[in-house]
Amino acid sequence: MNVWDRLSKNRLLVDASIWSADLTALAGEVHRIGHYADLVHVDVADAHFVPGLLFFPDLVRQLRATSSIPFHAHLMVEQPAALIDDFIDAGADILTIHCEVDKNVSDLLRHIRTRGRAPGLALRLDTPVDDAVPYLHLVDLILLLGTELGVKGVDLDPTAMTRITHLRGLLREHGLSDRVKIEADGGLRRHTVPDLRTAGADVISPGSLVFGPEDPETVFSWLHALPAPVDVP
Q1: Distance of CA 104 to CAs 62, 80, 123, 169, Å?
Q2: Residue 79 resides in a domain
Q3: Which of 38, 29, 39 has its CA nearest to residue 213?
Q4: Is residue 10 part of a domain?
Q5: For the segment 112-164, what is each residue's pLDDT rounded down to a tens digit?
Q6: pLDDT for residue 229 is more than 80
Q7: pLDDT digits over 43-59, tens only?
């Protein structure tokens, strides 16, 4: 079954980022939000494309054994080709690579599809949205960063909403509005998520918002109830 067939088509999808979870008890954290989250977001950093090191295939494999939630690996790495198959074999359902990192982006996206997984494309905050155009027909999802890559706990950039709206227009022009999802990642707070949803985000990747002290049922119920954006011709 296609991963998208397992997810609601009529509400905002929540891709919960384990980077903000209690790292000493990740299996328990995934279980805690398991009845509410639509996806589990796994950031992967190589200390080259972005500062610092983050998650790896064996972690996904271990968490995969504890949960049936789809896993989304966001590969913030210089050489995604070296990791794609490892994350697929570990159980990732969606793999997103950056359009800035490799001349063979199209081939890598096709490879992900050939392996039976959903391919995604990510754009850094300073990457023009139009750079995604050559890949629109190859992906299921486009992730737009709303903050600088590889940092957390910072405010949403003022351009985030207009970038999402622009991407939404491009998808409409290419007849892909119903097939390619837009994900907002970074700067997700209670006061920013409604505006990101209105701008056209289909998916969000919150961290502390869903892994904080607030009751997860309350937070996820609010997120899932946010109204869908209205298309503007």
Answers
A1: 30, 10, 16, 26
A2: yes
A3: 29
A4: yes
A5: 999 999 999 999 999 999 999 999 999 999 999 998 876 777 889 999 999 99
A6: yes
A7: 999 999 998 999 999 99
For residue 27, tell me if it sits in a domain.
yes
To the query of whether residue 38 is one of the catalytic residues in this protein, the response is: no
Cα-flanking dihedrals φ and ψ of residue 157, to 5°?
-70, 140
pLDDT value of residue 232:
47
Query: Residues 43, 46, 93, 202: which is the catalytic one?
Result: 43
DSSP string, 166-209: HHHHHHHHTT-TTTSEEEEES---TTTHHHHHHHT-SEE--SHH
pTM of the predicted protein model = 0.95
Query: Looking at residue 29, which CATH number applies to its domain?
Result: 3.20.20.70
Which amino acid type is present at position 51?
A: P
Question: pLDDT band at residue 233, thresholds of 50, 70 and 90?
Answer: very low
Could you say which of 15, 38, 93, 185 is catalytic? Answer: 185
* Structural domain containing residue 61: 3-225
Contact present, 93 and 72 (Cβ < 8 Å): yes
Half-sphere exposure of 168 (CA within 13 A, CB side): 21
Q: Say whether 185 is catalytic.
A: yes
**Smallest Cα–Cα separation from 74: which of 132, 147, 123?**
123
String of DSSP letters for 141-154: EEEEESS-TT--S-
Cα–Cα distance for residue pair 188/91, rounded to 1 Å: 26
Q: Count other C-beta atoms under 10 Å from residue 65's C-beta.
A: 9
pLDDT at 1: 64
Domain count of the chain? 1
